Amino acid sequence: METKLITDITVGQICDGFVYNEFEGKGLFGLSGKLVIQPEYQRNYIYADGKKDVAVIDSLLKGYPLGLIYFVKVNDNKYEVLDGQQRITSFGRFVTGKFAIIGEDGIPHYFGGLAKDLQDKIMGTKLTIYECSGTESEIKAWFRTINIVGVPLNDQELSNAIHSGPFVTKAKEEFSNSQNANIQKWSAYISGDVKRQDYLKTALEWVSKGNIDSYMSLHRFDDNIVELKAYFNSVIDWTSAVFMDVESEMRGLPWGQFYEKYHSISYNPNEVHEKLKELYEDFYVKNKKGIYEYILSGCSDTKILDIRIFDEVTKKSVYAKQTDQAIKKGVSNCPLCAIGHDSNKKRIYKINEMDADHVSAWSNGGATDISNCQMLCKTHNRAKGNK
Ligand SMILES: [Zn+2]
């Protein structure tokens, strides 16, 4: 990765071939066609408020620095503006007569009406530009290190920048558009901020099975997002068909992964609803978010639910009772060792060598209270837990 400081490019050179698109509200090209001012991933031009744009021209006329500008070198004949597009578009629009500034005489002046020396001052101003070239991942790492207008780009915004093109444009229209009427429905399953690309990120994560960057790279120049949309809708439709309920714990779960793993299994939505209700009401279920995969995977893997464990008082009391009885009988205080045939048959374990176990498994309705607690040696407890 190389970064190069360029200090000899002038406003006039940037403005050569400046194109501004009124309809899209974007500065498009400059630097004799070599510079893409507003790559598709950038926000639209927002300085056209008669203040920020005028301030840029003021700075140029007064000789104040405009601040650092960042270019990404795409190839020898093409650059993209990474940071600075608002400032560049401001002076580009001024130089091409799109707005006026109020002079000291109180009269609006367009560029064409300025005194020649002022025109020259603007056009001759040299900019401070950092040019960056390298592989995509290098540029991505570099992006991370600079603060873009005070708000660092997040991962998906960086990926949008790196893979900018027709695919990203269309994908953003669908998934990054807060005006999209579907957002409300999707927000039951997806967490995050539409504008910060969290929905787009989720959609891409699902369709790419987690390989967002390679998927974006592969589809960069596609002129449609048919597959992305279809996959996303399949996941949402499947999820809302299996789970009639909408609970806040559903938001942000890996529905794409669930869909991949479980969509060929059939579920009875009414039974799912009943099971869900039962588990939500179960005091022993600590991880409510885990309920969904627990149900999808056939209600067997209780680890997902993070079942509440026996407290210390219960364990000590059960240990004392068990040990007392074992010593009287002359067998091990681990009931499984006691019925075994190896050297541990008569072993009395210390409490820290044992773990509490549900006699009747929680998944079979066994409660987490003293009547259902037994102490097993660590080996046997582990062996039982793995069954
Ligand atoms: Zn044992």
Low-confidence stretches: none
Largest sheet: 7 strands, mixed
Number of helices: 17
> What percent strand?
5-15%
Roughly how many Å is the radius of gyration?
33 Å
Q: What is the 3D form?
A: elongated
What does this structure look like?
- It is a single chain.
- The protein is an alpha+beta fold and 387 residues long.
- It is built from 17 helices and eleven strands.
- A seven-stranded mixed sheet has the order 1-9-5-6-4-3-2, with helices on both faces.
- α9 packs across α11.
- The longest helix has 18 residues.
- The mean pLDDT is 88.
- The site of zinc ion has 7 residues, from α16, β11 and α17.
Mind sketching the topology for me?
Blueprint: E1 2-6, H1 11-15, E2 19-21, E3 26-30, E4 35-36, H2 52-62, E5 69-75, E6 78-83, H3 85-95, E7 101-102, E8 108-109, H4 116-124, E9 129-133, H5 136-145, H6 155-162, H7 166-175, H8 183-186, H9 198-208, H10 212-219, H11 226-242, H12 255-262, H13 269-281, H14 291-296, H15 312-329, H16 335-338, E10 354-358, E11 373-377, H17 378-385
Parallel strand pairs: 4-6, 5-9
Antiparallel strand pairs: 1-9, 2-3, 3-4, 5-6, 7-8, 10-11
Residues 334, 336-337, 376-377, 379-380 line the site of zinc ion.
Entry keywords:
two-stranded antiparallel sheet, elongated, 387 residues, seven-stranded mixed beta sheet, alpha+beta
How would you briefly describe this protein structure?
The chain is an alpha+beta fold.
